[in-house]
């Protein structure tokens, strides 16, 4: 059998590596859905923490393989991207919690929404990263645009207080309610149901609030990708490293969600840390140019990024503990 096509270059990486990664992701998701969550059940905080640890271990193990097979520079770039994307994904938890609350999604079915949401993310991120990689390869100056965007975004996060998203007045929510038949309540784990339309008296398809929640979760990821995709391209322009670090960081998000949703108030100072990370990642491209370096040293990039995030997490836990004692 002819297998030479497996070694053909695709976006700078042999095709077999892309296929191997996608096969690994499919195997992980199949194990998650077919074994760990074969039956619908509520996920408690303890189980959420264990599953999150498993996904983090898988992501770091893949990073170790990248380090061994592609070299230390690629390994450091992967780990930096993984840490940054994982941290940025934490900020998404708050929005997802608001979406679930607005649509009154029972905890029993939240994992289903998050699971199908991850499948959408895998496709959407592939498209966004593929387009980004093509544009950066053709127009290298775009990296400076990405870097400037990250700096501005980070500064804005530091000094401008975000307003809590109003899901009820969201344009997409209003569009779905006006254009589609929507059920008043949930119908178990179903996204679509067939029932009598009061206006016509005929059986017709309705979308459920569970499906609307899924759509909003996907849209939320696209919005957050506007920050995360430029951030990872500012770390490395290797599409394989960009995509794999993104996906492995996001894969464990739905497992981590159930633990974080219960203690999101403990991470009060994580957002300023995220802002500083974005400013650092964006500025290091300009700093490297000023110093006459080809690129900012990967080891320093990972170390500084990790130090900022770890400091934000530690300070948050310390300050919220003191607040709790004072109360």
TrEMBL record:
- Primary localisation category: membrane
What this protein is called in its record is TerC family protein
- Keywords, in A-Z order: Membrane, Transmembrane, Transmembrane helix
Q: How does it sit in the membrane?
A: Multi-pass membrane protein
Task: Answer yes or no on keyword Membrane.
Answer: yes
A Pfam family matched in the record: TerC
UniProt lists the family membership as follows: Belongs to the TerC family.
Give the residue spans that cross the bilayer: 15-36, 48-68, 88-106, 113-135, 141-159, 210-234, 240-261, 273-293, 299-318
Annotated compartments: Membrane
């Amino acid at each position: 059998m002819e297998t030479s096509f497996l070694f053909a270059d695709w976006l700078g990486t042999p095709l077999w590596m892309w296929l191997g990664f996608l096969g690994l992701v499919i195997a992980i998701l199949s194990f998650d859905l077919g074994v760990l969550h074969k039956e619908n059940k509520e996920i408690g905080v303890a189980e959420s923490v264990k599953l999150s640890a498993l996904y983090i271990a898988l992501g770091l193990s893949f990073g170790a393989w990248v380090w061994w097979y592609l070299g230390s520079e690629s390994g450091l770039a992967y780990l930096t991207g993984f840490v940054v994307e994982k941290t940025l994904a934490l900020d998404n938890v708050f929005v997802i919690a608001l979406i679930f609350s607005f649509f009154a999604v029972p905890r029993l079915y939240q994992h289903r929404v998050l699971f199908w949401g991850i499948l959408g993310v895998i496709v959407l991120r592939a498209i966004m990263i593929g387009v980004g990689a093509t544009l950066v390869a053709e127009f290298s100056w775009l990296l400076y645009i990405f870097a400037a965007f990250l700096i501005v975004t980070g500064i804005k996060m530091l000094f401008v207080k975000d307003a809590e998203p109003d899901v009820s007045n969201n344009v997409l929510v209003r569009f779905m309610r006006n254009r589609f038949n929507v059920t008043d309540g949930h119908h178990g784990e179903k996204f679509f149901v067939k029932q009598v339309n009061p206006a016509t008296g005929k059986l017709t398809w309705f979308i459920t609030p569970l499906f609307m929640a899924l759509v909003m979760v996907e849209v939320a990821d696209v919005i957050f990708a506007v920050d995360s995709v430029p951030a990872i391209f500012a770390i490395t322009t290797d599409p394989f490293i960009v995509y794999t670090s993104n996906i492995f960081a996001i894969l464990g998000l739905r497992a981590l969600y159930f633990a974080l949703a219960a203690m999101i108030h403990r991470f009060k100072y994580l957002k300023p840390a995220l802002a500083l990370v974005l400013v650092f990642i964006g500025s290091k491209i300009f700093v490297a140019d000023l110093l006459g370096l080809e690129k900012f040293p990967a080891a320093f990039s990972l170390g500084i990024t990790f130090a900022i995030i770890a400091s934000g997490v530690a300070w948050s836990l310390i300050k919220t503990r003191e607040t709790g004692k004072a109360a």
